Inverse folding.
């Protein structure tokens, strides 16, 4: 038996130690052996990677957060706005994430930018500002469909901010002010209408009960006297004025005749 030199044993031990890789619970290792990928990713735990025969690509299975930088979007009603968004996604198939795309993070970011411009460019400004949830679901559906061949699942898309030009902000403020004035006028007109109806009912009730007007006079005097002012009020029934007016008209007719 040929004795093995200690140096060779040491080299073999160091090689085996360097071949040991530890993958966390949220990681998977895609192994390429002589250029061909193994059927199943390795991990988690301890695995052996025999270089230079093997090459490993680490893929994280955790939820990734990708912020889309502000994009200049021209809406359907020709308003230019800056919109940025946040995308939440994770890798479901590490093998496809390595084989189908060179850099899945960069590619997903670029795809998200173009999708954001194309989808939001098909809606009007009012829809972009008021129906944010519907647009988020639409963006998620488009991105999820496009990234599915890469083994990526888009969990959620949120439009983060919409920056409007100063001229558009002033126009929206004027529109909101005009809308509030319109509502105020409608409410005031409805109040006048209801008040007129109530006054008509009150006049009809007083006409049936003439003594009610006298009670109203007395109640008004009590309210005025409770304020401790120096105002002196003499109630003058309208019936007296009507009688005086009729008397004057009769005298005028007698003079003419």
């Amino acid at each position: 038996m040929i004795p093995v030199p200690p140096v060779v044993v040491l080299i073999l031990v160091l090689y085996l130690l360097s071949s040991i890789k530890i993958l966390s619970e949220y990681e998977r290792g895609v192994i390429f052996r002589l250029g061909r990928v193994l059927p199943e990713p390795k991990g988690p735990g301890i695995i052996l990677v025999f270089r230079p025969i093997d090459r490993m690509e680490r893929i994280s299975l955790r939820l990734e957060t990708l912020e889309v930088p502000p994009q200049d979007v021209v809406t359907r009603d020709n308003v230019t706005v800056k919109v940025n968004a946040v995308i939440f996604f994770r890798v479901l198939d590490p093998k496809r994430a390595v084989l189908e795309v060179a850099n899945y993070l960069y590619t997903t970011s670029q795809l998200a930018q173009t999708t954001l411009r194309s989808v939001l460019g098909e809606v009007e400004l009012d829809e972009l500002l008021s129906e944010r949830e519907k647009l988020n679901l639409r963006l998620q559906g488009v991105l999820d469909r496009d990234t599915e061949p890469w083994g990526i699942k888009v969990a959620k898309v949120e439009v983060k901010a919409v920056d409007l030009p100063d001229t558009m902000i002033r126009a929206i403020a004027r529109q909101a002010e005009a809308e509030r004035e319109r509502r105020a006028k409608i409410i005031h007109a409805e109040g006048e209408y209801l008040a007129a109806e109530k006054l008509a009912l009150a006049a009809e009730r007083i006409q049936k009960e003439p003594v009610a007007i006298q009670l109203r006079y007395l109640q008004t005097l009590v309210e005025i006297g409770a304020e401790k002012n120096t105002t002196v009020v003499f109630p003058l029934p309208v019936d007296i004025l009507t009688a005086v007016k009729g008397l004057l008209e009769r005298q005028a007719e007698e003079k003419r005749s």
